[in-house]
Design a protein that fits this description.
Layout: H1 3-28, H2 32-39, H3 44-65, H4 75-87, H5 90-101, H6 109-113
Helix pairs in contact: 1-3, 1-4, 1-5, 2-3, 2-5, 3-4, 4-5
Amino acid sequence: MNGGETAGKMRTWDALREVARGLSCLVEEKQYTYIDKIGDALTPDIAVKALKDALRALRSMKAAEGGARIYIPSMEAVEQVIRAIEQDLENAVILATLALASSCSASSPQEDKS
Protein backbone atom coordinates (compact mmCIF):
# COMPACT_ATOMS: atom_id res chain seq x y z
CA MET A 1 0.00 0.00 0.00
CA ASN A 2 1.46 3.36 -0.97
CA GLY A 3 1.28 6.61 1.00
CA GLY A 4 -1.63 7.95 -1.04
CA GLU A 5 -3.71 4.85 -0.38
CA THR A 6 -2.92 5.01 3.32
CA ALA A 7 -3.92 8.68 3.52
CA GLY A 8 -7.13 7.94 1.63
CA LYS A 9 -8.04 5.10 3.98
CA MET A 10 -7.35 7.34 6.99
CA ARG A 11 -9.62 10.05 5.55
CA THR A 12 -12.32 7.43 5.01
CA TRP A 13 -11.99 6.17 8.59
CA ASP A 14 -12.08 9.73 9.93
CA ALA A 15 -15.23 10.43 7.91
CA LEU A 16 -16.86 7.18 9.04
CA ARG A 17 -16.11 8.06 12.67
CA GLU A 18 -17.47 11.59 12.28
CA VAL A 19 -20.72 10.48 10.66
CA ALA A 20 -21.07 7.63 13.17
CA ARG A 21 -20.76 10.16 15.96
CA GLY A 22 -23.77 12.02 14.61
CA LEU A 23 -25.72 8.80 14.13
CA SER A 24 -24.94 7.83 17.73
CA CYS A 25 -27.32 10.62 18.79
CA LEU A 26 -30.10 8.50 17.28
CA VAL A 27 -28.82 5.48 19.22
CA GLU A 28 -28.94 7.45 22.48
CA GLU A 29 -32.58 8.26 21.68
CA LYS A 30 -33.18 4.53 21.06
CA GLN A 31 -33.97 5.19 17.39
CA TYR A 32 -32.14 2.10 16.13
CA THR A 33 -34.17 1.71 12.94
CA TYR A 34 -31.99 4.19 11.03
CA ILE A 35 -28.79 2.44 12.07
CA ASP A 36 -30.23 -0.98 11.27
CA LYS A 37 -31.33 0.15 7.79
CA ILE A 38 -27.83 1.45 7.04
CA GLY A 39 -26.08 -1.66 8.33
CA ASP A 40 -28.51 -4.13 6.76
CA ALA A 41 -28.76 -2.45 3.35
CA LEU A 42 -28.51 -4.84 0.40
CA THR A 43 -27.30 -2.19 -2.04
CA PRO A 44 -25.33 1.05 -1.77
CA ASP A 45 -28.39 3.01 -2.94
CA ILE A 46 -30.46 1.67 -0.05
CA ALA A 47 -27.66 2.47 2.43
CA VAL A 48 -27.32 6.04 1.14
CA LYS A 49 -31.10 6.57 1.31
CA ALA A 50 -31.10 5.27 4.88
CA LEU A 51 -28.22 7.63 5.70
CA LYS A 52 -30.21 10.53 4.22
CA ASP A 53 -33.21 9.61 6.36
CA ALA A 54 -31.01 9.39 9.45
CA LEU A 55 -29.46 12.80 8.79
CA ARG A 56 -32.93 14.26 8.31
CA ALA A 57 -33.97 12.81 11.68
CA LEU A 58 -30.87 14.32 13.28
CA ARG A 59 -31.75 17.75 11.87
CA SER A 60 -35.28 17.40 13.26
CA MET A 61 -33.93 16.41 16.67
CA LYS A 62 -31.53 19.36 16.63
CA ALA A 63 -34.36 21.78 15.81
CA ALA A 64 -36.67 20.29 18.45
CA GLU A 65 -34.06 20.38 21.21
CA GLY A 66 -32.48 23.67 20.31
CA GLY A 67 -29.41 21.79 19.09
CA ALA A 68 -27.43 21.86 22.29
CA ARG A 69 -26.33 18.24 22.30
CA ILE A 70 -26.97 16.91 18.79
CA TYR A 71 -23.89 16.49 16.60
CA ILE A 72 -24.38 17.03 12.87
CA PRO A 73 -21.48 15.69 10.77
CA SER A 74 -19.86 17.93 8.18
CA MET A 75 -20.94 17.82 4.56
CA GLU A 76 -17.41 16.74 3.59
CA ALA A 77 -17.53 13.75 5.95
CA VAL A 78 -20.97 12.74 4.64
CA GLU A 79 -19.73 12.99 1.03
CA GLN A 80 -16.69 10.84 1.88
CA VAL A 81 -18.89 8.24 3.55
CA ILE A 82 -21.26 8.13 0.57
CA ARG A 83 -18.30 7.55 -1.75
CA ALA A 84 -16.97 4.83 0.57
CA ILE A 85 -20.35 3.07 0.66
CA GLU A 86 -20.66 3.28 -3.12
CA GLN A 87 -17.20 1.69 -3.47
CA ASP A 88 -17.80 -1.06 -0.91
CA LEU A 89 -21.11 -1.79 0.83
CA GLU A 90 -19.18 -3.18 3.82
CA ASN A 91 -18.53 0.47 4.75
CA ALA A 92 -22.24 0.77 5.60
CA VAL A 93 -21.88 -2.09 8.09
CA ILE A 94 -18.79 -0.41 9.55
CA LEU A 95 -20.65 2.91 9.82
CA ALA A 96 -23.56 1.28 11.65
CA THR A 97 -21.22 -0.56 14.00
CA LEU A 98 -19.28 2.60 14.81
CA ALA A 99 -22.54 4.46 15.45
CA LEU A 100 -23.53 1.86 18.02
CA ALA A 101 -20.14 2.20 19.72
CA SER A 102 -19.85 6.01 19.59
CA SER A 103 -21.00 8.68 21.99
CA CYS A 104 -23.16 11.60 20.88
CA SER A 105 -21.71 14.99 21.61
CA ALA A 106 -22.29 18.38 20.05
CA SER A 107 -18.57 19.23 20.14
CA SER A 108 -16.52 18.49 17.04
CA PRO A 109 -14.16 15.50 16.88
CA GLN A 110 -11.21 17.92 16.61
CA GLU A 111 -12.22 19.57 19.92
CA ASP A 112 -12.16 16.17 21.64
CA LYS A 113 -8.56 15.52 20.49
CA SER A 114 -7.26 18.54 22.40
